[in-house]
Amino acid sequence: MKKVIGLLTAVGMMTAPLAQAETVTVSGSTSVAHVMEVLAERYQQSTGKNVEVQSTGSSAGIRAAKDGTSMIGMSSRNIKPNELTPKTQKIVIARDGIAAAVNKANPVSNLTQEQISKIYRGEIKNWKEVGGEARPIVVVTRENGSGTRGAFEDIMKLQRVVNGHKVTAIAATAQVGNGNGMIKTIVANNPYAIGYISLGSVDDSLRALSVNNVKPTDANIAAGDYQIARPFIALIDQDTPQNAKLFIDFIMSKDGQRIVAEEGYIRVQ
Predict the structure, then answer these.
(1) How far apart are CA 88 and CA 71, in angstroms?
(2) N or C: which terminus of the chain carries fewer CB neighbours within 10 A?
(3) Which pLDDT tens digit goes with each residue over 7-27?
(4) Residue 29: CB partners within 8 Å, gap ≥ 6?
(5) Residue 69 located in a structural domain
(6) What percent of the chain has pLDDT over 90?
(7) 63 and 144 together in one domain
(8) PBP domain: which residues (predicted)?
């Protein structure tokens, strides 16, 4: 009997790693995770293969792909050359706009990029300066390491150089929210707040502003007219297991890209 138990234990120990190996692990950007979770669910339904998606932030996702702790990394910001290895492959799976969003009670419907930058720098502090009520602006930003924040700072020129290093130019008084969900909650509950979130995460709890008189729509982003936009990137190592590569193939397929569009993002093919 002991021999049988020992044999079963040994078999279990041998098959456990195989079961884990069959699961595709994905981690990184909370913005990309929004659509990646849907893609993973549809992929599992059609193939029976497991995909685990974790929202850890773009910087963490890039590191995970680089050091092999995840089969696939996710980033919603551009990636620096020193963050990759020669074996790392970058695949743009979708494109997304970043919406400057306000409370639905706010009468302001359009801002210029310059006005938004000045608001985040703390140079414009009251809504009356941009056509709103005479109320202080409550500035809300994402946490450090967020791909959305990184892309927003880059596009809006919200960085400065100190002692040879780039640092944020966003006012220290800005409130910080972790993830699109928290930004939405803060803005939806404060009529004088402004935040920025993935366009695909915008819902009827708040209102996305036009920027430079251009609405944040898929068509305007695809045409290049709406300027606050960024790629959604999947990162894999060339030695990544085949099951992870098959999941990427699904994402880039006609069915996968249709799901991308259904979730409010812009397909890349």
Answers:
(1) 11
(2) N
(3) 444 444 444 443 445 899 999
(4) 55, 57, 58, 61, 74, 75, 76, 77, 147, 148, 232
(5) yes
(6) 74
(7) no
(8) 20-254
Sign of the Cα torsion 91, 93, 98, 102 reads negative
What residues contact residue 182 under an 8 Å CB cut-off, 6+ apart? none
User: d(Cα 129, Cα 135) in Å, to the nearest integer?
Assistant: 10
Cβ(263)–Cβ(59) below 8 Å: no
Q: 233 pairs with which residues across the strands?
A: 75, 92
Q: What share of the chain is helix, strand, coil (3-state, %, to 5)?
A: 40, 25, 30
Are 180 and 198 part of one and the same domain? yes
Distance of CA 254 to the CA centre of its chain: 22
What's CA 154's distance to the chain center, in Å?
A: 15
Round to whole Å and give the CA distance between 58 and 148: 8
Q: Which tokens hold the place of 40?
A: 């993973």
Task: Please report, for the domain that includes residue 51, its CATH number.
Answer: 3.40.190.10
Q: In terms of domains, do 142 and 204 share one?
A: yes
Domain that holds residue 44: 23-96+230-262
Does the residue 12 lie in any domain? no
Q: Note whether 251 and 139 are same-domain residues.
A: no
